[in-house]
Task: structure prediction
Amino acid sequence: MTDAQVSGSRARTRQAIVDAAIEVLGRHPAASLGDIAAAADVGRTTLHRYFAERADLLSAVGTEAAARLARATAQARPAEGTGASAVRRLCQEYFDLGDLLSLLFSEPELCAVPTAGEAEGCDPEFTALVERGHRDGSIDPELPAGWVQSIIWSQLYAGWSYLAETGASRHEVLRLVLRTVDGAIGARPT
Amino acid sequence: MTDAQVSGSRARTRQAIVDAAIEVLGRHPAASLGDIAAAADVGRTTLHRYFAERADLLSAVGTEAAARLARATAQARPAEGTGASAVRRLCQEYFDLGDLLSLLFSEPELCAVPTAGEAEGCDPEFTALVERGHRDGSIDPELPAGWVQSIIWSQLYAGWSYLAETGASRHEVLRLVLRTVDGAIGARPT
DNA sequence: CCTGAATGGAACACGCTTGTTCCAGTTCGG
DNA sequence: CCGAACTGGAACAAGCGTGTTCCATTCAGG
Result:
């Protein structure tokens, strides 16, 4: 609060470092602080000036990740329509998280630590959403909410990897992800 | 050949180290050689006696991984039945790979390096299997073989993680994986 | 112009992993 | 029983990432 607006450049530099950290750690979770500083076009000294220890930077990354995740969730309007349609919209929004997707998949504890108050992974209202899908017949009742969540994240991550490996277009990969997620969680005709 | 049967204990110790490496690296890819030696109940000196450099151990792990993978694939009889049924049997066999599953998912280059002669990931006959499924109507023709492969591995990995997090039984998790994979790759009623 | 904020480079100590050497204890077969 | 193979611990050097200090440079605003 008191020093947030000192010069404006402080906030800008800090954000550049956090953004670079998400990008670099998303592609290579074991990256060094030097790599992150280089990606942010900043000296390693400057990075330590903003985040004294590595844990401080990771904490800031976790906070930023939680914020972006919450924003994407809100934009998907998870309370509207059938459970399956809400899941579909969630996938579309989450897919745009890009590098953050890989980071959240490989280091789920990033978001868990700051939200230490809650018990399980990250389903405060997600469980309710899936159970709504169970009731309205749009989601296979045999699949527990936790498994549906695992399916979604693993397929989003698979899609992001598929995008990097093959030359497929972003749009085409999203189409594949949505198609297979729909099939996986949809109620069985049997 | 010449020194393979020197005492029998050499082969046994070597195998114990490779097995421990798969187990430890599967759970924590950044594990140190000391961790692996401890898991194998072997001194770090002994480990270096069998594998001079870290790369040598990783190479041996890659070879062992390829062997187990080939054995699992053969047991699934991928040439029999419909494409979807073959995929289902592959999932069942691969699921039993255990820690190797995590390792192959997080370090795909382990198997790729020794098999440097081939072009893409690991679909010599897998592509043919999926295309058989396209023709016999058991696999959604809109899904390319590479994407089907991505789906399978990501869901197997998700299942293994789900098994570790929740207290679900191995059998129950395999049931969930098979159900969602079937739904994901199956031809659409639309 | 001049002061203070912000930055980046150089250098250092510390801890960890890796790779090596040396030595003592154990085990197995002749 | 004896010797060779096998083993594990201790110690060491080298490399890398981390965290810190110090100093020179740049830039914006009074």
